[in-house]
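Revision sheet: structure tokens.
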Amino acid sequence: MTTVSTPQVAGAALLLRDFSLEMTGKDTPRLHTAAESIPAGTRINVTYLGNEDLPLRLTAAQSVQELGFVPVPHVSARRLGSQEQLEEFLAALRDSGTQKSVFVVGGDPAQPYGPYTDSFDVIRSGLLQKYGIQQVGMSGYPEGHPQIRQAELWAALERKAALLAAEGLAGDIITQFGFDAEPVLTWIEQLRERGIDLPVRVGVPGPAGVRRLLSYAARFGVGTSTSIARKYGLSLTNLMGTAGPDRFLHDLAHRYDAATHGEVKLHFYTFGGLGATSTWIDDFRTKEGLK
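Predicted:
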């Protein structure tokens, strides 16, 4: 059994007090199976994948709500072919009562399919407010972005935070996942120094196979040097093994200081393992005396 110091226990309890999860539209059956191990009121993000259509995303958001959780549908700016497509999506969310919170991201396509080049374009369109959106999430990249310079990332984040404030919209930032707590907390310190006080949800990879974790890390530009991998508990010589974020959370909890870092929570990327992730969180809370 892992033993942690009192500051770590307190920090972990604070970070885990209102964690969020991520799922795809295809994960709806898994959500029903895992529901009993997820605390009521948990925010669950529903991704906007290119191979999933509106009915699938909408069904997922409705299932999240019907099971007693808070749906946070994603809007992928570059995947939107037209203003009409965005309005159709937002209207469907409004009509189903799942529109209060959304997460707006630029998206993967190198060229936008329609009029929205990034998440800022979607936010400034005024359509979110028109369809009853009250809270908007956006991305943060503590270790940078493979295709975007760091200076551009900071400028975009500052513009979006200012726009949300001007429009009277609540907001938060969900970071890309990582294996090292140090750059995450350094990035949050820089965020606060820039005057951005939005809540931050630190991206955490749920328990998964080492090969899958490394594959996602390579795709998103996440550092996986030998020293970082060893620190996290990954074995670069045993790709058939699995790893959970125990060490990462202990390190994050140990270094986290509310006065310096502000409001920080956790967001778990489940990588298709919604049940495994929710069970892992429940077991971790029990093991660390957080329940």
